[in-house]
Queue: 4 jobs
Job 1
Amino acid sequence: MRKGKLIAIEGTDGSGKQTQSERLLNKLQSEGYSTEVLSFPRYDTLTGKVVGELCLGKNLGLGVGSLFDNFAEADAKFASSFYGLDRLAAKPDIERLLNENDYLILDRYVESNMGHQCGKLEDPQERAGLRDWINKVEYEDNKLPKPDAVIFLYMPLKISKKLKAGMNELLDAHEADENHLKNAEAAYLELAEHFDWIRVNCSDDGKNPRAITDIHQEVYKNISKLN
């Protein structure tokens, strides 16, 4: 039996997954809990670089670049396999960190695969089929550790668009495709309800973002219930 609890931080585009993962890490450590964070894809590893450069078009030093005109349009099962391979390669590290710590926070995990890939399918039955397929491959076949809690940060796309409008940053294949982000948002909301994830709204009025500190406090309140 593993020692630690596994927390997956998921969310729509621009919801602050990395920020909230880091805040939760700092809070748990300040409370005396041994805690680590892993972020996926792991762009500092070979499997992560394959996802980041060959699929998403990031410059990660492979010298190849993207192999796809638009990876957001690639076949859902085909695309999900790249991400799944990176998580499978990380399985020994995940298991080790769980056994060495009270908490392991994952900034994106299997559930990200479901959100982004299910968003490519319009038919509800096909989305459900893909959802179950990803769940089986990653958790049953690959035997990845299952999260004790999934925190779903929901930032409406129209707000995240406004937040990114003033930022000068290079977008990857998914981030640059607004239609993909819109469909992924709908898929995430559907998945959150199906799996009963812990939903944290990042906007109170649908027009403006909540303060980062307020969101963090709600996230921590939910995680503290696991103790």
Job 2
Amino acid sequence: MKVHHLGVPVEELTSSVDIYERLGFQVVKRFTLGEEKIAFMEKNEWLVELIESPDSLQGHICLEVKDASEIPAEAVWIEGPFRMDDWSSSFYQLGEEVIEWLIVEETKRG
């Protein structure tokens, strides 16, 4: 298990991307998922997911695992899976925390 990214809710995606670029981050992926506008920003192998959404969001951590058996049994499913390219992810409640669990296809893991 490793940290994949940190999710950060933002008011306006374009201005937030500009701020992170001034801090040395680069856009590695930008897309829309439903009503959410999302940009993944990278610096020194750190990924930050900027999320503009009409809904109130809290920040989250995303943990990458080999398969769903690594997700703790006491974690309560909230939503997902969301499938993109070579991965799928789902959100779970674990205690008071919301955690995104990302499973990368075996053939795409580095």
Job 3
Amino acid sequence: EFKKVNKFYGDYHALKDINLSIDEGEVVSIIGPSGAGKSTLIRTMNG
């Protein structure tokens, strides 16, 4: 679970106040245009 997660690259605010909850066994797909922060979100989730 994420609550109000933010990620910065220098001065660039890549993720802004992200809230996300995924239940055990739930299958999730993350879609969006190039540069939307999909990979950044996954990397942040994985630590």
Job 4
Amino acid sequence: MYIILSLLYRLALTDYQRQIFEDVVSFCYKYADQIPLTFMLGFYVSLVITRWWDMLCNIGWVDPAALHLAAYVPGNDDRARMLRRNCVRYMVLTQTLVFRNISTAVRKRFPTDDTLVTAGLMTEQEKIAFDSVISPHKKNYLPTHWSMLLLRQARLEGRIMSDIFLRDLYEKINQFRGCVGKLAQYDWVPIPLVYTQVVFLTVRCYFLIALMGRQYIRPSNDRKGELNFSSPVDLYIPILSMIQFVFYVGWMKVAEALLNPFGEDDDDFEVNYMIDRNLQVCTFATRPLTRGQ
């Protein structure tokens, strides 16, 4: 488009039309910088990256709770192993329920509660108990409630030696629930769509104006003072404008790629991997701590 306008100015226009063209170029060049592109785009990208990083930090790792369970709920018998494993499994179930609400990849993998039973995240009895709770809201908190009930039962059975240990385990579970709950909050209150549209429209309008404002013109001697603008070097290809375009549009594309990290693009979070990985931790990290093993 730039080359077409340049050829039109050089070869096709009459002297009067060239004067009008030069006036338009001078106007676009003079007032293009009044568009606060750097401020708008910089603030928007900063907001998107801050949200993206906070989502990554709160994606949910069960390791601290699992390791504390292995230390605070000792024993090699079936009951002790069941307590440790089920507590972590309930945490992973809470995470999966939240991910299913915010991630299309997890929603495709677990479209119904029956698929959660098939994957081993929930038993048939737990599914019945889950469905029996009637609520107009999401029931993501319910598995966390189950894990805390298990820990209280373990304390009553004497498997947790101190109330301090029990409180520490409660805090670890609540921290995990708070992390995945923050992800749900980010999904509930996204960046306003109109803000995204305004920023993207501003970038496109800026470079649309630059198509005219960066044109090389050769005004007559009596018009040079009137225009107060002329290109010192005749660059048939606007190299600096192209570099600026790459930087600004690339900046915008970075924000566009990070805007929704729970999609199905290659650069999005591998949330299905997180579920599988935390389930594996449920199997291995809840073994009793023994020296030399």
